[in-house]
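SAMPLE LOG
Freezer: B-3
Tube label: C17
Construct: single chain, 267 aa
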Amino acid sequence: MFKGSLVALITPMRADGAIDERGFASFIDWQIQQGTHGIVPVGTTGESPTLSHDEHKRVVEIAVEVARGRVPVIAGAGSNSTREAIELAAHAKRAGADATLVVTPYYNKPTQEGLFLHYSAIADAVARHPNIVGVKDATANLARPLHTRRACGEAFCQLSGEDHTVVPFLAAGGHGCISVTANVAPRLCSEIHLAWQEGRVADAIGLQDRLLPLHDAMFAETSPGPVKYAASLLGRTAPHCRLPLAPVAEATAARVRAAMAEVGLLN
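STRUCTURE (predicted):
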């Protein structure tokens, strides 16, 4: 099952807003070389709300092609429309993704029955229901994984979506983290999970403490603005986001640079 450090991939773009396919492929390969345990393209961090369906599908295809089975690919396939989510999930399956990540519809706000019908319809279209195998939990509520494990069993995969709380999340029964920070600190994020899996709890806590200012800086403004800027400081991609996301403010840029230096990613 999925575990460890899974990166919520940014989608590199050129100044005109076009997707930098070559840069994206290179970025994925670097992530894998740095020890990232899985990749998650076209989530919110990948700017899925401003990608066309064709662009969304192409990003998934590139991710699968570059990963080449070295790490799992969990493709974003969520939508406020069940029909669109089914289309994206079906494409991800055809492209060879290992799983899809389907966001809870967040604007039309379905009832619990609506959510049940939404996820059931997607599962019916692309998989058997036993293939609803886990959850991404970005609440930072550390009681939740305890209750989820009790309700769903230890085999139900629990992935944190909140970088700050990864170690206590693991201690509460979690299996890994879908990380924003891993875009720019993939090795350090990976090492937290390796330390935890090997029983080196103090090492895991030490790495978590070291990364704290970087976690903070990654959300000093709406993501993925800060993390794209941080990746540009490493020479890994350009800082460009699509409107309505604006370039980060100078104060945010300074905070990102300072955090990167404090963590040891910049001289």
